[in-house]
Amino acid sequence: MDDGYDEEDYAEEQTMTEEEQAQMADATEEVKEMLGNAKVSIKEIQDALWYYYFNVDQAAVYLIDELAKKQKSAQAAAVKKTGTPKPTQSGTATPVGASSKSATATPKVKPSTAATVLNVPNEDDVFEVLEDDDAPVGQLRFDLSAMNFGSSAKLTGASKSKSGAGSASLKVTTSSSATGGSTPLVTSGMSSPIGSAPPSGISTPTKSSGKSGKKIDVVSEYQKRVSEKESLNLVVIGHVDAGKSTLMGHLLYLQGEVNERTIRKHERDAQKIGKASFAFAWVLDETGEERARGITMDVGVTKFETAHRRFTLLDAPGHRDFIPNMISGTAQADVAILVVDATTGEFESGFDANGQTKEHALLARSLGVQQLVVAVNKLDVVKWSEARYQEIVQKLEQFLVKDASFKKSNLVFIPCSGFTGENLVKRSTPGNICNGSAVSDASVDENVASVLQTFSWYKGPTLIETIDKLDAPTRAVEKPFRMSVTDVFKGTGGVCAAGRLEAGHVQVGEAIMIMPGGELAVVKTMEVNDEPTSNGSVLCARESPIPVTTHFAAQIVVFDVKIPITVGFP
Ligand code: GTP
Ligand code: MG
């Protein structure tokens, strides 16, 4: 057939120079290593490498994709019978974005449909459709920066992020379409923790190097880390002004996560706007509006460690206007601290019908929090009164056990003062009174000074000792990858998705599937990221997609119902 080329042209194209041969040998080894035990011949590897100009990542992803397709087609008949949705797999393998050099693999570029799948632009970053110059035509890259796990960087008080915690976002390159075009992908691979609590999770490389694709054994890495210290997401909830941010800001300071200079600066700046008492709260209340108004508005996220646990701390807002933020933070939490203000009249206003104490406790319980530490705070204001403490414990315990269904054995009550620091990390001792004096030169006031005598009735543990004993939930790290997408946005060059890692694990360069719809994608990068909003897709393991259903049973918790809810109620 006359295609305009003569034999010499072909012969010339297929001859490798010495340099290319050496490159091919190295790259072949790399791809072999990336593919592990996968059954792929050297010829197939080298064809893919040739096609991709020795780009190891692209070749490996292409080959992985091809393998997955072979497996799928073997299962196709069964899948059809059961009606399980599957990615449409038409046609040939489709490495895209590389110009054809060899005649062997001849992928075709398919039109991208990913934009229709991920078309929820949102400035808060979730999915991002990337369309940068080097993106192969017909591909989408997502950035699902995953949240909870993996960030190996230790965040200090100064480096926190706001918003819904526990979410993750990933950058992914989707395949061109649900028709199963393959999705050669670029990045390299670091690991990505999953389904687990944040700081501690597994590792979390956030950068793609463009080379290499060394995968880590996530399960054993996770087990190793967990055996060192368990990870927990801890949300701090309670009525507005109960002292949540102050208590946690002070705790972070006492734990060395925030230095004295920072606190002194907060104190000076807060004083200037007449809010000196908010110096510790400013550790977590970082925005100008929050500081000016003296309230938390968005969930403040930071990390800290105790002797036996790693915590991702979520400081929720107490003001009723920001309940949606409190819910998104609490939804990520494993355990909670409920802070109540012991001041006369204040506990009551938080606990009664319009207060947030009950509502937050009920929400936490219905969102899956089982272990609750109740910090009976501002005890300095009531002169460390045991009677007041017992009164509050009694009322709360009854409500939490009877109405909110907490197990009594999962409740711990701790009397403390977030402001003076009493019983957060230590107790006052003669000559060493906890009075916040590390941040203030003010003389110890009468209430605080009386702590030695009037608080001597308490013999129990400190707040930090208590949370250091909380149980960490078991993470389903060994299950197939599942990440519910809560936000998606487009950006330059790809698609970014954020959500919660529910199970399994994922690494950069891995092929994933977006259900329902069966869209294929490859993870490009992962980051610890921001707050989820809503979307509803589930990212999952290609070889084990989540089943799709038209019916589901849900347990819905409703508070303060004014009108009876009946069948057909809109
Ligand atoms: P929101 O996030 O807006 O719901 O408030 P919050 O619960 O985080 O309260 P925040 O820490 O902002 O504190 C509110 C006020 O209570 C500030 O003026 C604090 O100084 C004060 N406060 C907090 N804890 C204590 C305490 O233990 N004793 C005393 N006396 N005052 C406290
Ligand atoms: Mg606050």
TrEMBL record:
One of its GO terms (cellular component) is Dom34-Hbs1 complex. Residues 155-211 have a biased composition (Low complexity). One of its GO terms (biological process) is regulation of translation. Residues 229-474 form the Tr-type G domain. Residues 1-27, 78-117, 155-215 are annotated as: Disordered. It catalyses: GTP + H2O = GDP + phosphate + H(+). Keywords: Cytoplasm, GTP-binding, Hydrolase, Nucleotide-binding, Protein biosynthesis, Translation regulation. It is found in: Cytoplasm. Gene3D superfamilies: P-loop containing nucleotide triphosphate hydrolases, Translation factors. Residues 1-21 have a biased composition (Acidic residues). It comes from the Eukaryota. InterPro entries: HBS1-like_N (IPR015033), P-loop_NTPase (IPR027417), T_Tr_GTP-bd_dom (IPR000795), TRAFAC_GTPase_members (IPR050100), Transl_B-barrel_sf (IPR009000). Residues 85-105 have a biased composition (Polar residues). GO terms for molecular function: GTP binding; GTPase activity. PANTHER family: TRANSLATION FACTOR. Component of the Dom34-Hbs1 complex, also named Pelota-HBS1L complex, composed of dom34 and hbs1. This is Elongation factor 1 alpha-like protein. It comes from Entomortierella chlamydospora.
